[in-house]
């Protein structure tokens, strides 16, 4: 139940409060006067808020000021409901910017604290497989937002209704989180002496330079994912032959992501986490670049499916690697990895938006994103080389 509660928290924080912006974006551009450049900057402000909030779990304990993960989770869910619904109440770019910035901060706090609580609880219960259920909540939220947008399009309801509908979905998910993850009797209250073990992928091998290369490569996946993760439906809407597939491409991305973290965790157990990450990066690079080489509907849908089938796998395997490098600092390691990912996400949208305005399409932005993923493979290959043992190690 705590895994399902964690999935609900991830769905409302990531799939809805954060990523519902993606399928609603084409309607804001068409109906509310939001420019392509402005859409990229709104996404970036969301990620800046996301980045800043990742610092909170790291510094709160050192400063001696922390209301507790469960209390923080309760208040952040309420704030997510308010900031999401408030998007429908204005057409001011300045207010949209404030709301998306605050929403980014709230989303990461929900994700970090819910993940820390749930993973610690699952480790104590020897139920690490439940991590797949927890991370699958992101895809469920993406599917919900895509289905809602498709339904509202059929009813000829506008962008305001879509934001209010997203807020309603958040309100429906909140009770499950309250009754499981944030309840006083839940088994996942983080303790200083807790040593959670990631049971979903194997223990990490020795990385030269610690986690630095892993964190750097993970930042590049943020660039690789976020261009499509922000603009995929808008890319479809801007091409008449693809416009009808915009919401469906986003739903397909979400559907593919739901089982992907469990499947890729099993792959990592067989071939190792580093090799698995290399395969994931390569597949996602190909998926991101597909719409550049074909404007056929199959390319758009295949792109959504491949990206959806890899991005949560990357999150799951990479974060498990990071946790294994520092098993006594779960929340902080999740926060550091999330910060790296958000740095990449801050760079991607405004760059892609500016290039799209100049060239008339998103092809250059997609190719840059794909290239970032390929560079991430290079970082993995360099960082995953084990340290050489001293010459006389075998005689000791």
Structure explained in plain terms:
By secondary structure, this protein is mainly α. It has 14 helices and no strands. It has helices at residues 2-18, 21-31, 36-54, 56-63, 69-86, 93-124, 130-154, 159-179, 212-237, 246-271, 273-293, 297-325, 330-359, 363-383. The protein is globular and about 50 Å long. The relative contact order is 0.16. The model is unreliable at 188-208 and 387-396 (pLDDT under 50).
Question: Could you list some keywords that capture this structure?
Answer:
single chain, mainly alpha, 396 residues, 14 helices
Describe the protein's topology.
Elements: H1 2-18, H2 21-31, H3 36-54, H4 56-63, H5 69-86, H6 93-124, H7 130-154, H8 159-179, H9 212-237, H10 246-271, H11 273-293, H12 297-325, H13 330-359, H14 363-383
Helix pairs in contact: 1-5, 1-6, 1-7, 1-8, 2-9, 3-6, 3-13, 5-6, 5-8, 6-7, 6-13, 7-8, 7-10, 9-10, 9-11, 9-12, 9-13, 9-14, 10-11, 10-12, 11-12, 11-14, 12-13, 13-14
Q: How would you concisely characterize the structure shown here?
A:
The chain has 396 residues and is an all-alpha fold. The protein is 77% helix and 0% strand.
């Amino acid at each position: 139940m705590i895994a399902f509660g964690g999935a609900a928290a991830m769905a409302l924080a990531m799939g809805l409060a954060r990523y519902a912006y993606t399928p609603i974006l084409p309607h804001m551009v068409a109906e509310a006067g939001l420019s392509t450049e402005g859409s990229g900057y709104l996404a970036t402000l969301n990620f800046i808020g996301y980045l800043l909030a990742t610092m909170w779990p790291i510094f709160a304990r050192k400063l001696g000021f922390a209301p507790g993960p469960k209390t923080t989770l309760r208040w952040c869910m309420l704030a997510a409901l308010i900031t999401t619904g408030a998007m429908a109440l204005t057409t001011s770019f300045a207010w949209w910017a404030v709301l998306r910035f605050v929403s980014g901060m709230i989303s990461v706090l929900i994700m970090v604290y819910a993940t820390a609580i749930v993973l610690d609880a699952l480790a104590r219960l020897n139920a690490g497989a439940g991590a797949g259920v927890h991370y699958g909540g992101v895809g469920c939220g993406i599917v919900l937002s895509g289905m809602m947008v498709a339904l509202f399009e059929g009813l000829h309801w506008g962008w305001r209704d879509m934001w209010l509908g997203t807020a309603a979905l958040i309100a429906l998910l909140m009770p499950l989180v309250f009754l499981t993850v944030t309840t006083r009797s839940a088994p996942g209250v983080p303790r200083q002496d807790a040593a959670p073990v990631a049971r979903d992928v194997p223990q990490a091998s020795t990385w030269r330079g610690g986690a630095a290369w892993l964190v750097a490569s993970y930042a590049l996946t943020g660039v690789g994912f976020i261009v499509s993760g922000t603009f995929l439906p808008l890319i479809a809407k801007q091409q008449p032959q693809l416009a009808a597939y915009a919401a469906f491409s986003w739903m397909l991305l979400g559907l593919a992501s739901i089982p992907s973290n469990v499947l890729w965790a099993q792959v990592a157990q067989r071939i190792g986490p580093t090799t698995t990450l290399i395969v994931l990066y390569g597949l996602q690079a190909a998926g991101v670049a597909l719409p550049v080489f074909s404007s056929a509907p199959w390319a758009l849908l295949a792109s959504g499916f491949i990206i959806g089938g890899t991005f949560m796998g990357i999150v799951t395997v990479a974060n498990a690697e990071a946790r294994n490098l520092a098993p006594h600092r779960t929340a902080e390691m999740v926060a550091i990895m999330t910060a790296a990912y958000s740095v990449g996400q801050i760079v991607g949208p405004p760059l892609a938006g500016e290039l799209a305005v100049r060239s008339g399409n998103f092809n250059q932005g997609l190719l840059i994103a794909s290239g970032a993923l390929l560079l991430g493979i290079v970082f993995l290959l360099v960082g995953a080389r084990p340290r050489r043992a001293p010459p006389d190690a075998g005689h000791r």
